[in-house]
Fold this protein.
Amino acid sequence: SPATKKRRRESSRYAPPSKYAHLPPLTDILEPNLIGVFVGFNPGVTTAATGHSYAHPSNMFWKLLHSSGITDTRLRPEQDVDLPRLCRMGNTNIVERPSRNAGELSKAEVVAGTPILEAKIRRFRPEAVCIVGKSIWLAIWRWRYGREMRKEEFAYGWQGEGERMGGEEGWEGAWVFVATATSGLNASLKPAEKEAIWRPFGEWVRRRR
């Protein structure tokens, strides 16, 4: 309907950082010797307000972690700080500032988050990075190659040797796995399809533990 289309257009308008300046930044959950690190887009309003990752009730992140085998039980958002202890996983975002949705960020600031992310991976050296959403990987690609990714170049799952992140002299970098976005706003894939995409990463994490 016209009203629905109007709401969709409004939801994707850029919002300056000042709009959510009252919300505190989300603390990264990072430490050395992790099996992997989840990379989200940026904290949502609920996540920033609570101080815990993927906190909105409609977000499937914690459900997918359990159904894929990454966690033995379904964790609650407030247990995000326990990820390193429970499953040797960490969490960060490509953009630090919160917003209602990804449409409120500029393409430039998302791309600019890539070198910051690379530096974090270089510092903590996890075995792998799990990109939580196609759009994040597209932004990383734009920064790396200076162009948009062609449709035939994208695939969910493990990426090639040349796409490792954080590599430097003496370390080849972390392997990259591209998973689906988990936000309730992302309805392009059915829950069963998302679970199928996440499952290989979960099986790998369990083997590494």
Remarks:
- The beta strands are 36-40, 89-93, 128-132, 157-158, 175-179.
